[in-house]
Amino acid sequence: MIVVGGGWSGLAAAVRLVRDGRPVTLLDAAPQPGGRARSVALDLAARRLRLDNGQHLMVGAYEGCLALGQAVGASPAALNRLPMRLHAADGLQLEARRLPAPLHLLAAIGTARGLDMSERLGMVRLLAGARLRRWRVPPGASTVLEWLRAGRQPAALQQRVWEPLCIAMLNTVPAEACARTFLHVLRDTLGASRGAADFLLPSQTLDEVLPMPALATLQAGKAELGLRTTVNALAIDDNGHWRVQTSRGERRARDVILAVPPYAQARLLETLEPAPQALAFSARLRSFAHDAIATAYLAWPAALAAELPAILMLVEEPTLGGWGQWLFGRGIHQDLAVAAVVVSARGRLAADTAELLRGIGAQLTRQLGLPAPLDARVLTERRATFRCTPDRPRVSARAIDGQALPWQGLWLAGDHAWADYPATLESAVRSGLAAADGVLLSQREGRV
Hints:
The protein is α+β, with helices and mostly antiparallel strands. It contains twelve helices and 22 strands. A five-stranded parallel beta sheet has the order 10-2-1-14-22, with helices on one face. A five-stranded antiparallel beta sheet has the order 16-17-18-15-19. Helix 1 (8-19) runs parallel beside helix 8 and helix 2 packs across helix 12 (425-444). The longest helix has 20 residues, at 425-444. It starts with a strand and ends with a helix.
């Protein structure tokens, strides 16, 4: 069994297979596992810090991530759990109450600060209506913006609450974002148990949450780990076995899971026969549109750590270059108080790095009263996420847009291969588990 890709989806698939006693080879071009959610060494204020390569927010509804972390022995202290608190720099405060669901949410909206009565009633009406419709999109509302307008949401509420939440959850602006997917996320967070919307933040880095414990589990299970190994082509021999051409020679297996981004899956499918079918599936995978996400890390003297909130919605200031959307306090690292500021969605990364950092630093001074940071760095992932639009491809372990893959033993995984969700760590893990479960089922049924 070969798993191509050492991100969270590939790790999930490989761990599931190893724990079932199957021989597994995990291949990845990178020198370390974790994909786009791994740690990196970053120089800040003359110190070398170990931080995440991008700020990821997990929530209590991430059952797949949490269960997998527990299965591989990740420390319970690897994540800090915070009850849902939507605090914004403009004074908005919405906090989940210690009541059974859905009363916890009703109480949060009813006692929210910074919203007038019409805005509170608008939120209640919208969410109550969604619950009554079982979180299905009403006719004629394919985008989030159309859904908000159908729900008669005040313009200020859209701008201050729904748009930031939509960009945070789907990395897509409301005018383009898929309403059905947005409702799926709301269903599983705000519409579920009280703890489902809790914020989960890494105590140190995401390495401790999954990649490193998963790697240890794979090593203990005698999995073959081929890091720094690029997969170049796929082929099937006369016996139905897969031949995987890599930068380190050929590998063979009965099943292959491609747990890589859609453009990488497309590239590998294009090496397959029959060519016309391969090209048709490849074209659909290449139709995913991708956007960048930037994470700005800023450092101040450790004495300022108490002034950095755990999580805060910032107010975008486009005319002033203040593109920061969310601030995450990352604690003290080597006598530095560190925060991460996230900038996502198209059109917000036009500035060069120095200009972006100046704008964010000034934005934090205006909105939080913070002094200029001692140092700052930007990490930008150019293809960090796919654009979560209504017409995006729907990919599962064995099909694209409902059309089954014609090659037996080939499986797809990745954060794009769980159609209910946008690009998240949870969708990556669920897709990896689904692909591995498909392999196990097919083998138990004696596929030939």
